[in-house]
Design goal:
- There is one protein chain.
- This protein is mainly α.
- It is built from four helices and no strands.
- One of its GO terms (cellular component) is plasma membrane.
- Belongs to the drug/metabolite transporter (DMT) superfamily. Small multidrug resistance (SMR) (TC 2.A.7.1) family.
């Protein structure tokens, strides 16, 4: 169960980062409120998961999911470039996250 919560928390990390961009420097009240809800949920889920998952592994997986998810959001929603080198680096992050899960 902790791993499921950790993955969902990593996805929520992507959500709050996207919402952080949408707040336009916290000038949009609705987006700021959604950002705070997503941030809180992400942190609570991470805290729950770290009760049973080692902190180094859990945090690295959480950040990896958030980093890859945020980069994917940037490419899909914001038109950021999806170069081969960038995709290779994201693939390396995914490989590291998967490796940490299975070497846990």
């Amino acid at each position: 169960m902790a791993w499921v919560v950790l993955v969902l928390s990593g996805i929520l990390e992507t959500v709050w980062v996207a919402l952080l961009h949408a707040t336009r420097g916290f000038t949009r009240l609705g987006m700021t409120a959604l950002f705070l809800v997503a941030l809180t949920g992400s942190m609570l889920g991470l805290a729950y998961a770290l009760r049973t998952i080692p902190v180094g592994t859990g945090y690295a997986v959480w950040v990896g999911i958030g980093a890859v998810g945020t980069a994917a959001y940037g490419v899909v929603a914001l038109g950021e470039p999806a170069t081969g080198a960038r995709l290779l680096c994201l693939g390396l992050i995914v490989a590291g996250v998967v490796g940490l899960k299975f070497l846990h």
